[in-house]
Amino acid sequence: MKPKAIVLTDGILDKIDAKTAHGLIRGTERYEIVAVIDSEHVGKDAGEVLDGFYRNIPVVANVEDAIKAIKDISYCIIGIATNGGKLPPHFIPILESCVCKKMSLVNGLHDYLINIPSLVTLAKQYNVELIDIRKTKERKDLHFWNADIFAVTAPIIAVMGTDCALGKRTTCRMIKQACAKLSINAQMIYTGQTGWMQGGQYGFIFDSTLNDFIGGELEHAIVSCWKETKAEVILIEGQAALRIPSGPCGSELLVSGNAKHVILVHAPKRKYYEHFPAWGNIHSITSEIELIKMYGSKVIAVALNTEDCTTEEAFDFQMQYEKDLQLPVLLPIQRGVEKVIPLIQSLLKGAK
Question: Going edge to edge, which strands form the sheet with 73-78?
């Protein structure tokens, strides 16, 4: 049985910065998510707050209410991913309360729990763990790129985006699950902390890895996965975007990871990178497709994040992009990702 866990988002469950919580609410093989702590949405179901789908995950006001309603909670997971990975100061008393209830803490932020004296003291007192997912690996545990990637014969597909927080990981997981329904052995390489929290077996935390070893860690994850699982197709969770100024990312997937195929996630109504006008306008999707082509890779499908769209607008965008781009366009939340499966099946035939 999976250990029970609560997720802390206090106040921002319905905001982009709670994307770690969003992923866990949608599914995880590592934990059983039994409640979300968020003072702004008490009494609601977390799934309904997220995307309108009931998931039997209650939103409660505090740790005490969670303990009263649910037995044997083992973990509290910090469910936010803030710019710069900062831990909000008002989270600390809540985390202290969790430790006093003998819960271990799981943290995906750049601010490490092991650097907070009060939590370290309480963790020792109550014999629980402080798990900092983004803690940098020691040199002995890092891998340098060595060209083993070129031995991989399975098609490698990168799920990339035109900006951050678009649903790249969610789209990747949904495609993996859709493949599984048809007995296609698709495996996913996680590249962020939420991917690990959701139960990912192969991958690494991209933005806490020393730059010299990013290519090698990616290669090692892909090659290990391919050899050990006999994967027919490998999906890579993308991070950030090729041209986001705060942290451009993605060329490593195409070059070091040898991903020759890309599914590109885009938000039609999002104008600025991370919604910040000062960061500049997001480049057009046609421009992004051309840039990826320059790397020697091909966009085989597009997936749309339909934030701020009505259902009718979402369907209209799907039709318009398919007409303009001459590519399959997915609406993962509204219509699933099955439309991409025939393309994957064609890649598998070509790989044989």
Answer: 59-60, 32-37, 4-8, 73-78, 104-107, 130-132
Region label for 2, one of left (φ > 0), alpha (ψ between -120 and 50) or beta (otherwise): beta
Which 3 state secondary structure label does DSSP give 19? Answer: helix
**How far is Cα 281 from Cα 129, in angstroms, rounded to an integer?**
42
Q: Which residues pair with 59 in a beta bridge?
A: 36
Q: For residue 159, list its beta bridge partners.
A: 237, 263
Domains of the chain: 4-132 (3.40.50.720), 141-351 (3.40.50.300)
Q: What is the Cα–Cα distance from 250 to 237, expressed in whole angstroms? A: 10
Question: Using an 8 Å Cβ cutoff, are 81 and 110 in contact?
Answer: no
Number of residues assigned to the chain? 352
Predicted model pTM: 0.95
Spatial contact of 282 and 273, defined as CB atoms under 8 Å apart: yes
pLDDT tens series, the chain, 352 aa: 899 999 999 999 999 999 999 999 999 999 999 999 999 999 999 999 999 999 999 999 999 999 999 999 999 999 999 988 999 999 999 999 999 999 999 999 999 999 999 999 999 999 999 999 999 999 999 999 999 999 999 999 999 999 999 999 999 999 999 999 999 999 999 999 999 999 999 999 999 999 999 999 999 999 999 999 999 999 999 999 999 999 999 999 999 999 999 999 999 999 999 999 999 999 999 999 999 999 999 999 999 999 999 999 999 999 999 999 999 999 999 999 999 999 999 999 987 6
